[in-house]
Amino acid sequence: MANQWWQSAVVYQVYPRSFQDSNGDGIGDLPGITQRLDYIKQLGADVIWLNPIYRSPGVDNGYDISDYYDINPEFGTMADFDQLLATAHAKGLKIMMDIVVNHSSNQNKWFTASAKSKDNPYADYYIWRDPVDGHAPNNWGGFFGGSVWKYVASRDQYYLHSFAVEQPDLNWDNPQLRQAVYDMMNFWVNKGVDGFRLDVINLISKPASFADGQPEAGEPYAAIGGIIANGPHLHDYLQEMNQQVFAGHQLMTVGETPGATVADARQLASLQGQELNMVFEFEHMGLDGNPDPALGKWNDQPVRLVDLKQSLSKWQTGLQGAAWNSLYWNNHDQPRIVSRFGDERPVYRERSAKMLATLLHFLQGTPYIYEGEELGMTNAHFSQLADYQDLESLNAYHHFVDDEQVVQSDQMLGYLAHMSRDNARTPMQWDDSQNAGFSTATPWLAVNANYPRINTQLAQRTPGSILSYYQRLIKLRHQLPIMTTGDYRLLLPEDASVYAYMRHAGSQHLLVICNFTAATQTRHFAVLPADAHLLISNYDGDHRDVLRAYEAKVYQF
Ligand code: ISL
Ligand code: CA
């Protein structure tokens, strides 16, 4: 049995900038979210994860925080936040904050003070190094391209930034910085928030040595991700945070941990509860990356189903009984799943979206739904660079096309259309009115042109919609403990077209079968008793061994 509330919860992720604009400036905001809480409640979710809403210059859409104690004026005021939290709580919804403490904005007062001199109270809040032979201290390159080092004349030193230049990394080896972070988190706990999603939290402890790394062939810099993840004091710092912030509260905590392995997660998200409740792992999000490692995620090829099974199964069995999984297909950094692992063509979009939902929601762990996923929202299909806002996408284009000249412009635009983070960030599609009911003004990022046929109003009126299917899945999860806690066993590991697995709890079983192709497939499952009950399916009627295009079905016995 699940014994923690967050184990049987379902999370709905809201990207505030793109959810609902309430004051006609084209930017989603907190009052807009408050207006739409009933929609999330009707979906059946228990928790809302809010992407960062703090004061920020917005270089990385709020992941560059200039004041951790204040609200981004584009999103509203602290009173609007208090109202959102109180209204959510009154409806039985919890709110999880996104905490970004691997780095801050360079406009944070901690940083402006730190940059002034080597001897002020904030001097050691960031990671400063002397020049080496008049150059940057080493050859590390950041997540968003370029060197991780930026020179500041007032200190005659470089600071480290794993992401954009405007996102200096905080120095977690400084106990005062750590205390300042815990105090800030406690400010939000004392307001009554219900949990935290911790941005790139496995990067906070930097390695002892800052020696050069090995760049990929043809690249000027060594990618910092693999160098700084899982630093020597990561677990110490998280245990300290747990004691100083989480202990004694019924919070839900999830760490974003790019590059984390099963072994890492067993410690970070151990059921013993000394660090975090769960982590976001990225293995299944990296399977369709470019075969050329220098190009990283930029690719336009589909995932191989066998790889996907292998990866998800490794995490299911690897954490079973020891730690807790978070389950997701989408977030604000990933392309839309129906366009990525499903089939967005109009005849298959609904079936394949429901098939993917079935696969995910019957796994062990806590499911996360990203806004619009429950409608089967698709990739944006932007065709020119000017359509994009995301700095990762723009930097990558300039790096590979203009600077390195290793990718042709058309090819890179194809990669962006497949993988850009902006695919997830187009405004929520509420109805078929102008701007999809998101805003009365021109939205900050274009609305997907398909909103007249993909929107919540239409989904609510259409029996059998993807939305209604998500409602059913969530309801089932709340009713059937086996969905949360049952053991997982993969069937047909080498099958390139059908993903099938079982869940077991005592004498109860579930058999989950998903056809990942548009072709009819025939598979016989000897384990299935003749009188097994069909619990849910994305088709009417059941032909047992026959699987229609993107058919998904779950038997209970
Ligand atoms: O977005 C990615 C791949 O496209 C990742 O490399 C991402 O940068 C990484 O997972 C960290 O993401 C988080 O921190 C970033 C921020 O830009 C992302 O939106 C956030 O989810 C820096 O704060
Ligand atoms: Ca607004």
UniProtKB/TrEMBL annotation:
<comment type="similarity">
    <text>Belongs to the glycosyl hydrolase 13 family.</text>
</comment>
<keyword id="KW-0378">Hydrolase</keyword>
<dbReference type="InterPro" id="IPR013780">
    <property type="entry name" value="Glyco_hydro_b"/>
</dbReference>
<dbReference type="InterPro" id="IPR006047">
    <property type="entry name" value="GH13_cat_dom"/>
</dbReference>
<protein>
    <submittedName>
        <fullName>Alpha-glucosidase</fullName>
    </submittedName>
</protein>
<keyword id="KW-0326">Glycosidase</keyword>
<feature type="domain" description="Glycosyl hydrolase family 13 catalytic">
    <location>
        <begin position="13"/>
        <end position="425"/>
    </location>
</feature>
<dbReference type="Pfam" id="PF00128">
    <property type="entry name" value="Alpha-amylase"/>
</dbReference>
<dbReference type="InterPro" id="IPR045857">
    <property type="entry name" value="O16G_dom_2"/>
</dbReference>
<dbReference type="InterPro" id="IPR017853">
    <property type="entry name" value="GH"/>
</dbReference>
<dbReference type="GO" id="GO:0004556">
    <property type="term" value="F:alpha-amylase activity"/>
</dbReference>
<dbReference type="GO" id="GO:0009313">
    <property type="term" value="P:oligosaccharide catabolic process"/>
</dbReference>
